[in-house]
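Milestone 3.1: sequence recovery, worked example.
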């Protein structure tokens, strides 16, 4: 029987599967609408704008009404977005579709992380890394199945299959999402931005961890396909290997974090991820590039979950507000970076792009002490 813990796993899996299916769709989307790298960067920036607008709104919705209505609303709309992108007839309609996609993927992110914090408190066991492990499994399933589906069904067939399969998973979790609302305690904390610097510093950790993750999602298939000359299926393995490595380590993340502590784990993970990006950026064969992305996934695996756990457990701040703040700062890289990264890739190449993204991870290493509130306390 599905309980609230399994229901939140389903939501993370669905969100990851939608992003995973988007990764191999990007080159098809760009080719169909004759979009080059810099224009695609602007499209991804529109995705980021939708994300930044929706996250504070969903954070307030979670704080006022609980995470159940926010999860139901965002997940239902998010499942259909890839289909609208696949059938968009022109750049204007595609821009609107990608804005809505960004808004509901990011809004769902806030809502499901709030539900994960709520479930952690109820069962008195840390589950955040495992939740993000299911996100990575969804990303892996989406990237691999999406690559095959595009190869044999075309981009529209792939998008339709994704819509049906993710909607079915949301429906399986639906009752427990609703039941969870009946037992959660409404937040009495005023809805306002915190004055202390700590929530913002945790947001910076999320931002510098999200930048390379977003780059792998948005540009890894482009890298292998356009610069290395790999086919669509091989290109999908870049994000697939990244997601598989992420998922593997995330399922170990909760007990390892409990043993090592959040701060030490952030330091180790940030250095591993930086090495993986250097390998991908400096390599010239698909095999080594894909291996580098896998190592990057190993390193990035628990940085975002630890940042979200820390944000959701800050004293004196409503989890809905702190989580929306952390995700907004983290996703701001999706708004600022895409156009810059697109131009960088167009004029300097993907090698420079991925090599340079190791630098923010060194900053994460030095900001690691800010995440100490992620350590689970009875």
């Amino acid at each position: 029987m599905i309980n609230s813990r399994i229901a939140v796993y389903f939501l993370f899996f669905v969100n990851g599967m939608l992003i995973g299916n988007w990764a191999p769709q990007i080159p098809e989307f760009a080719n169909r609408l004759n979009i080059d790298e810099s224009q695609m960067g602007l499209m991804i920036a529109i995705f980021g704008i939708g994300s930044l607008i929706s996250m504070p709104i969903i954070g307030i919705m979670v704080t006022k009404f609980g995470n159940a209505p926010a999860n139901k609303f965002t997940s239902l709309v998010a499942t259909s977005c890839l289909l609208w992108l696949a059938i968009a007839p022109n750049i204007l309609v595609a821009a609107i579709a990608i804005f809505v996609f960004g808004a509901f993927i990011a809004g769902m992110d806030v809502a499901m992380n709030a539900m994960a914090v709520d479930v952690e408190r109820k069962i008195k066991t840390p589950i955040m890394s495992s939740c993000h492990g299911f996100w990575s499994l969804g990303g892996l399933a989406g990237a691999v199945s999406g690559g095959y589906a595009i190869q044999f069904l075309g981009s529209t067939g792939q998008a339709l299959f994704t819509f049906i399969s993710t909607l079915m998973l949301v429906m399986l979790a639906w009752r427990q999402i609703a039941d969870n609302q009946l037992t959660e305690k409404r937040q009495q904390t005023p809805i306002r931005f915190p004055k202390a610097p700590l929530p913002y510093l945790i947001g910076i950790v999320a931002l510098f961890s999200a930048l390379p993750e977003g780059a792998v999602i948005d540009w890894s298939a482009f890298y292998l396909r356009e610069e290395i000359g790999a086919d669509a299926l091989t290109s999908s393995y870049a994000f697939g290997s990244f997601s598989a490595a992420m998922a593997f380590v995330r399922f170990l993340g909760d007990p390892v974090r409990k043993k090592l502590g959040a701060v030490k784990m952030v330091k180790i993970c940030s250095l591993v991820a930086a090495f993986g990006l250097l390998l991908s950026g400096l390599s010239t064969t698909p095999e080594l590039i894909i291996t580098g992305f896998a190592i990057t996934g190993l390193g990035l695996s628990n940085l975002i979950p630890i940042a979200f756990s820390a944000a959701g457990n800050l004293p004196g701040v409503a989890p809905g507000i702190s989580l929306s703040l952390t995700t907004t700062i983290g996703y701001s890289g999706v708004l600022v970076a895409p156009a810059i990264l697109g131009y960088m890739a167009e004029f300097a190449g993907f090698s420079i792009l991925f090599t340079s993204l190791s630098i923010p991870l060194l900053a994460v290493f030095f900001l690691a002490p800010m995440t100490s509130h992620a350590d689970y306390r009875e």
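Residues 4-374 form a domain with the Growth Hormone; Chain: A; fold (CATH 1.20.1250.20). The chain has one domain: 4-374.
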